[in-house]
Amino acid sequence: MKKCVLLLLVAGFLAGCATAENDYDPLEPMNRKVDAFNTVVDEATLRPLAKGYIAVVPDEGRSVIDNFFKNLQEPNTILNDFLQGKVHQGLSDTYRFVINSTVGVLGLFDVASHMGLKRNKEDFGQTLAVWGVDQGAYIVYPILGPNSVRNTPGTVMSYLLDGATYFYMVANAPIALAATSLKYINERANIEDFVKMRDEMALDAYVFVREGWRQSRIYSIYDGHPPAPQSTEDDAFDDEFDDEFADEFD
Questions:
Q1: pLDDT tops 60 at residue 13
Q2: In the beta sheet, which residues pair with residue 146?
Q3: Using CA of residue 49, residue 45, residue 179, residue 69, what is the dihedral sign?
């Protein structure tokens, strides 16, 4: 939580300094229209549902639901561990998945974390970055939100390797609909504090989200240790800010 808040604070600073255009957002005019559409849809549907969900379901209950769906996404992380050459992490994440799927009752309880097996999150977009593929253009997809050319195949792969995808296929229609709704309402509830921060702090909400997403991806690709930019006189504040909060990101 603390790491995500700090990332958004960085994004807020960047949003105040960023120019309207940059070389990784050549589709900005179209992206802004899609982002505005997504905001309207969210305000009319998911946000009210997420607020009601937060009001009704206690933190402990939301944590159990969150654990369950995140456990179903572990195969995607495990495969990308090995594709990135992180053999030890891949074995650790495999063990974590087995422990939580059995002792943790289908992932409802994160037993593995209490055993010192931390949750990692790897995806094919990160793998492509490790392989040297350039990010390409920033893209905002309808409903799905922020993405990039490089990360798009990873979005598809994440869907195909998510256990929930196959559960929906075999479950009867009412159960599949209820489970799908629960998953996305829970995910939306998890970011409600960040959306509030965006609404309250951002001079330009679009730039705020774009820079926050980009910085978050860089942070993930480098496992929390992105390379330091070349120091210039204009970067003095950035360097001081990064040094002050470096320990929070580790």
A1: no
A2: 140
A3: negative
Given a cut of 90, whether residue 21 has pLDDT beyond it is no
Say how many domains are in the chain. 1
Q: Which domain holds residue 219?
A: 2-249
- Residue 27: what are its φ and ψ, rounded to 5°? -100, 20
Identify whether the C-beta of residue 140 lies closer than 8 Å to the C-beta of residue 147: yes
**What is the per-residue pLDDT across 195-229, written as a single tens digit (0 to 9) for each?**
999 999 889 999 999 999 999 999 999 998 888 76
Q: Which two tokens mark 191?
A: 């970011």
Q: C-alpha distances in angstroms, 115 versus 92, 100, 105, 204?
A: 11, 11, 15, 43
Alpha carbon distance 136, 121 (integer Å): 22
Read off the pLDDT of each residue in 15-19 and give the average, rounded to a whole number: 44
Alpha-carbon span 161 to 140, nearest angstrom? 22
* pTM of the model as a whole: 0.81
